[in-house]
Specification:
Blueprint (H helix, E strand, L loop, with lengths): L4 H14 L12 H7 L4 H13 L3 E4 L3 E4 L5 E2 L7 H7 L4 E12 L2 H7 L6 E11 L2 E10 L17 H8 L4 E9 L3 H6 L8 E10 L2 E11 L16
Antiparallel strand pairs: 1-2, 3-7, 4-5, 5-6, 6-9, 7-8, 8-9
């Protein structure tokens, strides 16, 4: 079945981004140019651009144009550690509450983050990590099934996603962004927060060799969690 014209335009734009022909922050053709290229009305082209903008694939700058949004996380100097090990090293008791394990069709931002086709099947999990039975962190993870076909069959009360993925697709690279966020009602419920306490959010993508394995959002109450790192500088003699 032939896709509607606006969907074809969306797929064209996403394809250009995934192939890196259109790099992040680069300006894309105008609605008029897209309409001419695909022999459609400007309204049809606008619908495609608007939907991708709402999905976070594109960003609009009034009077200047439309640009490819940033999907590449900043490089980080933070060490990637297993949260269960962190808790145990502090003398705490680690446990996990799996909230959701499912297969989903990847929407555009998830597809681009994982380097897969839009609407392809990816695995989705939501877990709450606990320390001494108190919620410490919510982990929402999207996984490429190609590298972890048995992901949804794991008992994450016994092994963390980090541990499992390191076994089946050894980690070679990770990129992060870190920011303060206000939790929504669902996040407050998962973290047992009785007010909208500021939280620390880490967005992480992990690679094995040259392939992206997972795309993860980690959210922790600001009062319960912190990130740190150690840097060593080499000075010229």
């Amino acid at each position: 079945m032939l896709k509607p014209k606006f969907a074809q335009i969306k797929q064209h734009i996403i394809g250009k981004i995934k192939s890196t022909e259109w790099a992040e922050h680069s300006r894309i053709p105008s609605e008029n140019e897209l309409a001419e290229q695909f022999a459609v009305s400007r309204m049809t082209a606008r619908r495609a651009v608007t939907e991708l903008s709402e999905a976070g694939v594109l960003t609009r700058n009034q009077g200047i144009g439309t640009f490819v949004a940033s999907f590449k996380s900043q490089s980080s100097l933070l060490e990637i550690r297993n949260i269960a090990d962190e808790v145990k090293e502090r003398g705490g008791m680690y446990s996990c509450n799996p909230v959701l394990l499912e297969s989903i069709n990847a929407i555009a931002p998830i597809a681009i983050a994982l380097g897969v086709e839009v609407d392809s099947i990816v695995y989705h999990s939501v877990l709450v990590h606990l320390e001494n039975e108190n919620p410490l962190q919510v982990e929402e993870r999207f996984v490429n099934p190609k590298f972890a076909p048995a992901y949804l069959q794991q008992n994450f009360e016994l092994i963390t996603p980090h541990e499992y993925l390191c076994q089946v697709a050894p980690l070679t690279e990770a990129r992060h962004t870190v920011e303060a966020v206000s939790p929504n009602a669902e996040m407050c419920n998962w973290l047992a927060l009785y007010n909208e306490e500021p939280c620390l959010q880490v967005i992480r993508r992990t690679w094995s060799a040259n392939d992206i394995v997972s795309f993860t959002r980690l959210v922790s109450p600001g009062s319960k969690y912190r990130l740190g790192g150690h840097l060593t500088f080499k000075h010229k003699k």
